[in-house]
Amino acid sequence: MSTKRDINRIVFxxxxxxxxxxxLIKAEKLLNNFNSRQNFTFxxxxxxxxxxxxxxxxxxxxxxxxxxxxxxxxxxxxNWIILKERLLKITDQNVEKxxxxxxxxYTNNFWELINKLAIYKNISHSKFKxxxxxxxxxxxxxxSQKNIVEKFT
Length: 153
Description:
The protein is mainly α. Helices cover 61% and strands 0% of the residues. The protein has 2 domains: 1-88, no CATH class; 92-153, no CATH class. The chain is built from 9 helices and no strands.
């Protein structure tokens, strides 16, 4: 069940998407109110990952000073490291829990990073079959991830 918070999360769609400015405005608010002592969920970390995608594509608000950008980038990179560490711990024992907690908007990011970080190697064929049976809608996201498809076909 999606919450109001999940619906309003920051998502990077593409360099040419019309939601760039509204998402960057939301990102600015999130970054300005950042609290490093907060206990971040996967969805929180994926939200920072999506902000990272804006920065990686050099999509920024023109009003941001160099200092703002540096401070924001530091927060983004710190959370990127935390996200990678959490993802690298995914195995047969916890992959379904991670999927169950994942917001719909971040499903593609999840499988993209499972592919890029070679985390799929930590998942057995039998567990992958279970995922496809229990989370059949995931197949659309998985099929675009070459390494995952090659391992499990």
